[in-house]
Amino acid sequence: MSTIIYPSPIFGPVHSRRLGLSLGINLLPGDGKACTFDCIYCECGFNADHRTQSPFPTRELVAKKLEAQLKKMHEAGEHPNVLTFAGNGEPTSNPHFPEIIDDTICLRNQYCPDAKVSVLSNATFLKQKAVHEALMKVDNNIQKLDTVDSEYIKKVDRPLSPNYNVERIIDQLKSFNGHVIIQTMFMKGCNNAGESVDNTSEYYIAPWLEAVKEIAPSEVMVYTIDRETPDTHLQKATREELDTIRDRVIAARIPCTASY
Asked: Cα(182)–Cα(173) distance, rounded to whole angstroms?
């Protein structure tokens, strides 16, 4: 099974299904994975298979490498659509995340002012005031909410903390007052233990949609598996299923896109 471990702290640019030409910023070590979730569909593989003992990249290193890449692209007449915090785990777990966001916005303004700053997060650090404040500064504050069913979360997203509470996460997402994009993975099939992981049925969609309405995000992104996954029996949701979910979100007067 192939997995993707991203260089650190800068990778790409890459073409994103949802974001366009994206220059990646990986605030995790470049030799392994460090995440507060252990999702069975993660393109980086299972946490246990890619452990790292390396430190997080420093604020100074991120700024230096980001500026060098932006300057190189600018001189070549190539400008990213988005600067995306993603990579080998949860970006907000880097202890210097708030300061790095400030540095990134300054560099964006200097080299590619039309680019958006995006963060792909699993919402596990929203309780930290400094992280919340930093996310309010970015253009695309993209937070994961695959379901509101606790048992499904334990089976699929597999948060490391025994204190993870989806109701508390929903309250924290509501606290952005609309400055948040909800990202949800829909899929079918089963995990390696043979248990169904299909969240495309009404049993999962209806309560998820009610939570989305409560959060009142600026946008919702629904998507499905696009790359090889560590659990080998997972299946893509169909185009028709994603379109139906998308249309229900739009009917609730919330913009929504579907990526297949």
From this structure: 9
Contacting residues for 21 by C-beta, under 8 A, at least 6 apart: 13, 14, 15, 79, 80, 81, 82
Q: Which amino acid is at 159?
A: P
pLDDT 10s digits, 69-124: 999 999 999 999 999 999 999 999 999 999 999 999 999 999 999 999 999 999 99
Interval 238-260: pLDDT, tens? 999 999 999 999 999 999 999 99
What does the chain come to in residues? Answer: 260
Please, what sign has the CA dihedral across residues 131, 136, 220, 205? positive
Tokens of 197: 């992981």
pTM > 0.70: yes
Residue 89 is given by DSSP the state B
Question: Which residue, among 34, 38, 3, has the nearest Cα to 229 in the 3D structure?
Answer: 3
The structure tokens 């300061």 sit at 99
Residue 84 is given by DSSP the state E
Which runs of consecutive H residues, i.e. helices, occur in 165-238? 166-174, 202-215
